[in-house]
């Protein structure tokens, strides 16, 4: 499955508009501009015109489900359609398990099929279960509309392509008490409802697909600054992060990643990232080179994720490397890293992070504070996904005194805090990692692409996540976090944030 969005729009009856926010990664602390007038969705053409803007790209060989909640559009969910028949098989084998472009804005499931099971039936059941569980997880959903995007032939009104997919999903949703109001098939040239077989009522072969791109909603979305297109994974470019911007001091951390385990160096690195993720310092020159080399140490890489999503304070307190600084007196002056924060700034940040520990309320791992039950609201990690940070990259502190912080740290890494992360800072992380991923150095490109994949997975964009992970593993086939995250995406695991209306990422027009 792929692309789950919870757009700030109130269509159908009384909508609220898909308001453009800042570009992801923009180094700006300004507030978003006021939302424009509500974007009213009047008919099927409007819904279909809105879908690619919600997803960020035109769906291809996909089933898209759009939830309706109290007269407004809710989440938009995309999942791969079953693929063509495999050689020697008796029927088509679903591409869903193999291609695994994910759920909740995330991915399809790759659960192994039982021996001897009909592959088509198993794939349909798996697809319907994934869609049904996601949709039913939002208790505010009243109904669903479906759209099948395919280039498969449609010979006559009563034989729409992939009718078995729609039927399987509908059966699953009806059992959950959620009706499907309509289902449309969108081909390369025409689109039409797949429910009506009367050509007098619904002319055959349908309306022009191009009108969906240029119609009222498409034009309105473009006017509001929205656009969509195929996602491109950053390519390596010679000199993108020039070695000339390095120094002997930075080279030491590249050549010996263990040097980052020094508590003061680790702290200085978190402070450098914090300034960039806050938008106070641009990612350029020596600062960009410094950030690239912090990723060579897995525990520091994990701390970067936590810094972006939940703040530098939690990252610092939950990292094993900084334990000596938390337990002892105020430390000596931290190292001066080329491109990094000055020592006084690092010490001030350390004092602030220490003080935050006594003031903050621990994350509720059940997710009840997010207004939803555990699981549906993303409050607990998916089955088989370890909550402790060590399982992802050995970033957490295992001591008893740090148990709560370690748990919170791990919940952030698996996107299961039950409360919304800082999506603006995560957007800046995406921007920086897109720059770092252009490095020709495998030790930089692999983690940068993996962090990009994590960003997309956290947002529920499994298809994009998988593409980044495949490139990361091309740079380093043994990169552990990429392999782990790829298994999650291929198994259809969603971040808890993407499952809940209260915590889900909302696509800005520029994202």
Automatic annotation (TrEMBL):
Q: Which InterPro entries match?
A: DUF4192
Composition bias of kind Low complexity appears in 14-31
Bias (Gly residues) occurs at 369-381
Which Pfam family, an example, fits this chain? DUF4192
**Where is region (Disordered) located?**
1-39, 358-385
Q: What is this protein called?
A: DUF4192 family protein
